[in-house]
Write a structure and sequence with these properties.
With 316 residues, the chain is an alpha/beta fold. It has one domain: 3-Layer(aba) Sandwich (Rossmann fold). It contains twelve helices and 14 strands. The protein has helices at residues 10-22, 47-57, 74-81, 93-107, 112-123, 154-160, 184-189, 205-209, 214-219, 239-245, 252-259, 297-315, and strands at 2-7, 27-32, 38-40, 43-45, 128-131, 138-144, 149-153, 167-173, 193-196, 223-226, 229-230, 233-234, 266-269, 286-289. It has a seven-stranded parallel sheet. A three-stranded antiparallel sheet has the order 7-6-8. A hairpin with a 2-residue loop joins strand 11 and strand 12 (233-234). It binds guanosine-5'-diphosphate (GDP) and calcium ion.
Length: 316
């Protein structure tokens, strides 16, 4: 079986572990969000690709859900001694090595997709990991600071401001002219099923869908999505701030309707949101109700299995 997953960072990575357990023989392609990517200290950092790579490759800081296990922070401390900012985005020493190798290869002219493949030769994540695009796309957030509006990089809004300053708009800067990375459209077209993990619908899945051609390719397939919203709130993180910015209520019904029957065929919601099963806003989408907390690997594999079962039902 061939499965293609549109992935953000932490939520996606946990789900992917469950998917690997539920479908050990499947060929899984992960199309990763690169809208969170940022250049820091001259190095290109790809947080979502790295979270998937480290999680599936056994190098993740398990309690944090991102970053390397067993990190030390000598480089951060040395940079601080030079007052070399920004001071709001911390990179560990081990993580720095990834960004150095990536940046060297990019500077030598290799596209991000090829560079990601090289990095994955070390980590062996057990999936094919593709960036959504080799072209630079960055999520920017329009904020109002009282004395005027300005765009900031998504990471500045998310990490420095903890998304506490209301976002007026969220844009995928550069997406209009970007092309999907080699293999992305083929991986979607050739898939038996496309899955959306419980990733941020705006700045993870939404950004991937903003790359020209990807939305249409997904719409042509049997697609099942997992709600990242349980009982009217994101499970971890601040996805509600992103949804508010695009005028979507933070609820399983509203997010399912935002994806829409033209894009997804199946929608998994948590027991707490069981009224979604009969909500007219989700007409045309098959809704299934089950526990969606990715508590441990077994619980997460159950969610993945339910997504695959629903997809099989919908495509038969
Ligand atoms: P990020 O790029 O690291 O923010 O990660 P993603 O976009 O992949 O995932 C973030 C989303 O995962 C958040 O909106 C959370 O609500 C969702 N999430 C995290 N843990 C769980 C969980 O246990 N169950 C469900 N259903 N969603 C979760
Ligand atoms: Ca992310």
């Amino acid at each position: 079986m061939r499965i293609t997953v549109l992935a953000g960072g932490v939520g996606a990575s946990r789900f992917l572990r469950g998917l690997q357990a539920a479908a050990p023989d499947a060929e899984i392609t992960v199309v990763g969000n690169t809208g969170d990517d940022i250049t820091l200290h001259g190095l290109r950092v790809c947080p979502d690709l790295d979270t998937v790579m480290y999680t599936l490759g056994g190098g993740i800081n398990e309690s944090q859900g991102w970053g390397r296990t067993g990190e030390t922070f000598s480089i951060r401390d040395e940079l601080a001694a030079y007052a070399a900012g920004p001071d709001w985005f911390t990179l560990g020493d081990r993580d720095f090595a990834t960004h150095i190798v990536r940046t060297q290869l990019l500077n030598d002219g290799h596209p991000l997709s090829a560079v990601t493949e090289v990095l994955c030769q070390r980590w062996q994540p057990g999936v094919r990991l593709l960036p959504m695009s080799d072209d630079q796309i960055e999520t920017h957030v329009l904020i109002d600071e009282g004395d005027g509006r300005r765009y900031v990089h998504f990471q500045e809004w998310w990490v420095r401001m903890h998304a506490a300053v209301p976002a007026q708009t969220i844009v995928a800067a550069g997406a209009g002219e970007a092309r999907p990375a080699p293999g992305v459209l083929e991986a979607i077209a050739d898939a038996d099923v496309v899955l959306f993990p419980p990733s941020n619908p705006v700045v993870s899945v939404g950004t991937i869908l903003a790359v020209p051609g990807i939305r249409e390719a997904v719409a042509a397939k049997t697609t099942v999505a997992v709600s990242p919203i349980i009982g009217g709130a994101p499970v971890r993180g601040m996805a509600d701030a992103c949804l508010t910015a695009i005028g979507v209520e933070t609820s399983a019904v509203a997010v399912g309707a935002h994806y829409g029957a033209g894009l997804i065929n199946g929608w998994l919601v948590d027991d707490q949101d069981k009224e979604a099963a009969t909500d007219p806003a989700l007409a045309g989408i098959e809704v299934r109700v089950l526990p969606l907390y990715m508590r441990d690997l077994a619980a997460t594999a159950e969610i993945a299995r339910a997504a695959l079962d629903l997809a099989a039902e919908l495509s038969s």
